[in-house]
Design goal:
- It is built from 19 helices and 18 strands.
- The strands form six sheets. A five-stranded parallel beta sheet has the order 3-2-1-15-16.
- Helix 16 packs antiparallel against helix 17.
- The termini are far apart.
- The protein binds one RNA strand through helix 6, helix 12, helix 14 and helix 15.
RNA sequence: GGCGAGGUAGCUCAGCUGGUUAGAGCGCACGACUCAUAAUCGUGAGGUCGAGAGUUCAAGUCUCUCUCUCGCCA
């Protein structure tokens, strides 16, 4: 029984351009959105899965300077790197775009113009610190100096980390640039645009209150920002930078804002939309084809929009971006379901880019194929609380689940069949009670697996999938075709035929988690299936006489020596 | 300091709106099997659910206090 086809728009939080992402970033958004997208496609739904690099802002400029490249070149190169790594992890985006692309320029300027028309943008003169040596305005956190409160010499312009007092950059004694160390600073007056989020506070609250099915993590963060202290604050959405989207009202210039760009957090979420437009451009499709995903007046009224992100992104997705959408007065699609993840820690501490602590996407793929990482990370995703990556857990998880349970199942079934019946689905025998029991268990587990995926409960789904794999070994153990073969070859043939069909089922249902292994099983069976209507149907998928080949071992074990070597290699520079 | 999230078997974690002997995986012990990648399957031992108090016929599950851990503070 097929469900009616749904249209599902899925976005993953945009990885920032300043460097290669670590496993925490991977599991905090990219991987779960991919598993969800793959599952929904598998169920026959119409899926648009979108991601992009988030390229603007001071950290990008600094990373470029550190790399000795012009920022545009740096971003172009890093985009290619991140795109390739995404492909390495088999992230199945329909499009992986760039927030610096022309589509996002146009859309961001369009939204700004609409927000201005709606009276939601205000021009504000403010004082900013300019560094003559660096030739740039310095964001608060890039100004350091002596704390007027506690005397610490490493206070930042936004806060003293020593005494935690909130500061303004002008409070600092002997301020200096955190970039160059220069003390040649001056305060300049500069005009900026503020998004009047506070005016939409009630609408936002009403809207969030309708999201009763959202995780507590999500709504509690949003409500905190809405109601804490003075409530939702207006927010500066422009910056004095070169690299970014020039401030305009739609196509028109914005008097007094020449040379300024939009703040990265204003333009980044709009890239979700722009990247969908980039998708259409890349495939030579008309605008109507992407707008039907985003404009409720142009076909998106039946779209379900699901966003994936780590918890630090929640305020921007529950408040800032919805302000942009609602405030525009145009019927753009708002998020329907928002899935936020906690942090993945590394051996009990933080992943750290600066001290190279933890594992980064490129390094991970150098060690093992993507399926190992996908499986372990997804089956241990930090959903309800932070979760911890440890090498020993990773080793035992991969070895047990992938190698011993799934890989060995495929191996024992195909090799037994080859030695007794040849590389062909054997005929003969009649299914009995064991098969009925197997079907009953599979139906239960498939339903549970599907329900968990629908609810985006990734860990639970992984556990059910694993249970489906285990059911195969349990069945083989009970049915014992090696024993039956001696007295009743037809019975053994029926059992092995059932087991080969189980393999085919595994190839299908495992796709969201381990697409490469799924493909390898499919290839060895010369068969690719859709989500089964029932377990009974699934176990009759392969025709008798159908040829297959015994595959190479799907997985290998991670041995103790490797684990110890990797543990040492990635423990970071600090000896904690 | 403020805020947030947590402290459940050796380890990593599930436990919804309070209700039979608190669950899973791994690890461990014992047993079975021998088709398979020394893989698999079964059985079992492990927890006064951070501490204390309260509400209730009934609390891991609600309230308060304390304590410890982690994170965030634009």
């Amino acid at each position: 029984m097929r469900e009616p086809m749904a249209r599902i728009l899925i976005t993953s939080a945009l990885p920032y351009i300043n460097g290669i992402k670590h496993l925490g970033n991977l599991v905090g958004s990219l991987l779960p959105s991919d598993a969800y997208a793959r599952y929904m496609r598998l169920r026959g739904h119409d899926v648009m899965h979108i991601c992009a690099t988030d390229e603007h802002g001071t950290p990008a400029e600094l990373a470029a300077a550190k790399a000795g490249k012009p920022v545009e070149q740096f971003c172009a190169d890093m985009f290619e790197t991140q795109k390739a790594l995404g492909e390495g992890f088999r992230l199945s985006f329909d499009h992986f775009g760039r927030s610096s692309g022309p589509r996002n320029h146009a859309l961001t300027q369009h939204f700004a113009g609409k927000l201005f028309e709606a009276g939601l943008i205000e021009e504000v003169m403010e004082k900013q610190v300019y560094s003559n040596t660096d030739g740039r305005y310095l964001p608060d956190r890039y100004i350091e100096g002596t704390c007027p409160n506690c005397g610490s010499e490493n206070a930042r312009g936004d806060q003293c980390e020593n005494c935690t007092k909130q500061l303004d950059p002008t409070d600092l004694i002997n301020p200096r640039s955190a970039i160059s160390g220069s003390t040649d600073l001056e305060v300049r007056e500069t005009k900026h645009l503020y998004l009047r989020q506070s005016k939409l506070r009630d609408r936002l609250r009403d809207w969030i209150n309708t999201k009763t099915d959202w995780p507590i993590l999500t709504t509690s963060i949003a409500k905190k920002w809405l109601d804490d202290g003075d409530g939702l604050q207006d927010r500066g959405i422009t910056r004095d930078l070169d690299w970014g989207i020039p401030v305009k009202k739609g196509d028109a210039d914005w008097p007094g804002m020449e040379g300024k760009v939009f703040y990265v957090w204003f333009d980044a979420p709009i890239e979700y939309i722009a990247a969908t437009a980039e998708w259409a451009d890349a495939h030579g499709k008309p605008d109507a084809d992407w707008r039907r995903w985003w404009r409720e007046d142009e076909g998106a009224d039946d779209v379900k929009y699901v966003q994936f992100m780590a918890k630090d992104n929640v305020p921007f997705h529950t408040l800032s971006f919805p302000v942009t959408i609602m405030g525009s007065g145009e019927p753009w699609k708002l998020v329907d379901h928002l899935k936020a993840f906690n942090w993945l820690t590394y051996e009990g501490g933080k992943f750290s880019t600066s001290s190279q602590r933890g594992i980064f996407m490129d390094q991970a793929l150098d060690l093992l194929p993507s399926d190992y990482w996908r499986w372990w990370l997804l089956s241990n995703a930090p959903e309800s609380s932070d979760s911890d990556f440890t090498w020993s857990a990773f080793q035992s998880g991969c070895n047990k689940d992938l190698n011993d349970v799934l890989g060995n199942f495929v191996s024992r079934v195909t090799k037994f069949c080859r030695s007794k019946f040849g590389e062909v689905v054997p005929s003969g025998g009649t299914p009995g009670e064991e098969e009925a029991a197997l079907i009953a268990e599979l139906d239960t587990r498939l339903a549970a697996y599907g329900a968990a995926m629908e609810a985006i409960e990734v860990r639970k789904a992984a556990a059910e999938l694993r249970g489906i794999w285990v059911a195969g070994n349990e069945y083989l153990q009970r049915a014992a075709p090696w024993a039956a073969f001696k007295t009743d070859p037809d019975q053994a043939a029926m059992v092995i035929r059932t087991a080969l069909n189980l393999m085919a089922l595994y190839a299908t249902v495992s796709k969201p988690f381990i697409p490469d292994a799924s493909a390898a099983i499919s290839e060895s069976l010369d068969w690719d299936g859709e989500w089964p209507a029932s377990a009974a149907e699934a176990l009759n998928a392969l025709p008798e006489g159908h040829k297959f080949t015994v595959p190479e071992n799907l997985f290998r074990k991670i041995d103790d020596n490797e684990r110890e070597a990797w543990d040492a290699k990635f423990s970071g520079t600090s000896a904690t």
